[in-house]
Amino acid sequence: MLAKLIKGAAASATLALASALPAQAVDLQFYFPVAVGGGAAETIEALTNEYTADHPGVNIDAVYAGSYQDTITKVITAARGGNAPQLSVALAVDMFTLIDEDLILPFDDFIKTDEDRAWLNSFYPAFMENSQTGGKTYGIPFQRSTPVLYWNKAAFAEAGLDPETPPATWEEMVEMGKKLTKKDANGNVTQWGVRIPSSGFPYWLFQGLTTENDVILANADGNKTNFDDPKVVEALEYMVSLSKDHGVMEPGIVEWGATPKAFFEGQAAMMWTTTGNLTNVRKNAPFDFGVGMLPANKRRGAPTGGGNFYLFKGTSDEQLSQAVDFIKWITAPEQSAKWTMATGYVAPRPATWETETMKQYAKDFPPALIARDQLEFAVAELSTYQNQRITQIFNDALAAAITGQKDAATALAEAQAKADAILADYR
């Protein structure tokens, strides 16, 4: 009897010890890009560390992979070599490329409960347009954005304009831009009225103009573009006219990366750039500034932009389950609020904006609401199969028109023909 008791006690002790030990560690590799200023990389690392501190059995190697272009290149290279990360943030428009490469898994495979379904349906519809295709969800919105208009209130006041009222239409942007453009005694421009970057992501900011001109650049299936539509031609002619005819924007290619600095230094009184630059502008602009929706033409509108979370094939079931749990956690309202306040990216779920943290943030800093409110008029960012090739063709057409090598209609007709030749196989 004593022997049985001793044996039972030993078994209980062994069981207790086993239950006290952590489960086998789950290791995840997570690639992420940073395309804007501010504390984005530091915030990602802090959030990742917060998650792993609460989940002792999980190790997450958060790898800053450079720009969006650098990240997708590294992800594809690693996956082809059999070393894909378990999860990554990449551009939402890379969805078709990743599907074509057969590298990613739909999140639908991990939606088991009503709570899971509620989570998947909790994101802004405008952001889900670049996250779903063929009835499946391949991307979860995270660092999402729209382009917005920033203006220098001091420059407006100096030019005799109402510093609280930005241009609401294309015509007003030209009229105000003329008043805001300053020249020195020798006739050299010291301050341009407006700055719309045409490098880095030229198609994206230009899509602000096409959306406002009531035309969509590509279909939802990612296999047909509308580059030669007369409304697209008209939008490009307007963009060229800002320099060529109206003299309110610097001629030639306007650099994306240099635009915030040019704005801070008074070289441009207005700029178009991502809401992801909001925190950067708030910290570094030496003057009062405003943030507004992009000016309308036939309608209001802007493209969505930014990055989604993706899940990669070649990952164990345990890793995938943990990766999904991490994505649910980091997109939850409180974590999403921290990310939005640190970067300026648009919180991708309405629930985030209902937290006390975000309500106070919006009360203290109302410009944070502009990009969110602009989602009502937003459309999907240009995204197709062979996306990098297609957008490069389109970017080259824009550059040819902007630099005066070709007229807008010719440049866009040639781009459409090249895109058709590539996308025909996907129809």
Automatic annotation (TrEMBL):
Keyword Nucleotide-binding annotated: no
Keyword entries, A-Z: Signal
Keyword check for Signal: yes
Classification via Pfam families: SBP_bac_8
Cellular component terms per the entry's GO annotation: periplasmic space
Principal location listed in the UniProt entry: periplasm
Signal peptide stretch: 1-25
Compartments (UniProt record): Periplasm
Coiled coil region boundaries: none
Family label: Belongs to the bacterial solute-binding protein 1 family.
This protein's name: Extracellular solute-binding protein
